[in-house]
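Subject: Protein record for review, amino acid sequence with backbone structure tokens
Concerning: The relation between a protein's sequence and the shape of its backbone.
How to read it: Take the token row as a discrete description of the fold.
Enclosed: The protein record, placed directly beneath this head.
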Amino acid sequence: SETSELPKLWNRLNKDGLTPLTLAADLGRAKMLSWLLQERTTIQWSFGNVSCVLHPLDQLDLGFHEK
């Protein structure tokens, strides 16, 4: 199915070694970065208008400090 392919695409590197998330950050595309982060967000629990969400951090520290 299409959704089973998503994890593979999230981790796919381009020729410069960047994932879609790190490419959006590198190019300064704030809207795309926000959308990508939102798509990977998992709602852990909700109570009324309060929610606890999990944001995967596995791709956030990939060497940008080395530039």
